[in-house]
Amino acid sequence: IAGYSVFYRVIDINYLFNLSEKSGVPIEIDFEESGIPIPCIEDIARNEDYQSYLAVIPGEVLVNIYEQYGPRLLEQNVRTFLQFTGKINKGIRKTILEEPHMFLAFNNGIAATAEEIKLSDLPDNKGKTISYVKDFQIVNGGQTTASVYHTWKKNKADISKIYIQLKLTIIKQKNNFSEIVGRIAEYANTQNRVSTSDLSSNRENHVLIEKLSRSIWAPPK
Questions:
Q1: What whole-number distance in Å separates Cα of residue 112 and Cα of residue 127?
Q2: Are the C-beta atoms of 139 and 76 separated by less than 8 Å?
Q3: DSSP letter, residue 209
Q4: pLDDT of residue 191
Q5: Do 41 and 54 touch, CB atoms closer than 8 A?
Q6: CA nearest neighbour of 67 among 174, 153, 139, 193
Q7: Fewest CB atoms within 10 A around its CB: which of 13, 43, 61, 133?
Q8: Where does the pLDDT of residue 45 fall: very low under 50, low under 70, confident under 90, or very high at 90 and above?
Q9: For residues 136 and 53, what is the distance between their CA atoms, to the nearest angstrom?
Q10: CB-based contacts of 160, cutoff 8 Å, min separation 6
């Protein structure tokens, strides 16, 4: 309305209960309202702690969610948005602006957790789609999410070709919910550091030199 995005919701007894009894109101997202299906693959491993799903979410859907909920989506993330001062976020923005179709291949995607999920069937038995999630939190990929949003908002970038890999974990153990979510956030954001020399070791000239070193013998003196 007049250039501003407007969102609404019904304030019911459950919403009032969450306000009075809990630390915050859980984020509930109805993907069916977006009109864009989120196809997913369900983890076949069964256990009492969690259930995981792999999906690909369009950039436009992720931007709409972030515009509505903002940093609330990242409450379980280890960092808030670091702006575009760092090398990584600059690289994300460069891909969005110059090679949006390559985003899914270049980006590691996001990891999220939720308390509840509802699935719907795709037409012609083509699988399942995520229709609803409750208490949605992005625990890894906050920089990706915010970078896509701010590039779209500030640079008016066309994100119609942006797709992001999503790993969604539903926590079954309600009494252990916070601990499991915290551990997922910790481990998802912990990895061995990859140096520039590690990355350059796979370049064609270095690989060729290695092959030559293994196949060409030094002449005897």
A1: 21
A2: yes
A3: H
A4: 61
A5: yes
A6: 153
A7: 13
A8: confident
A9: 13
A10: 59, 60, 100
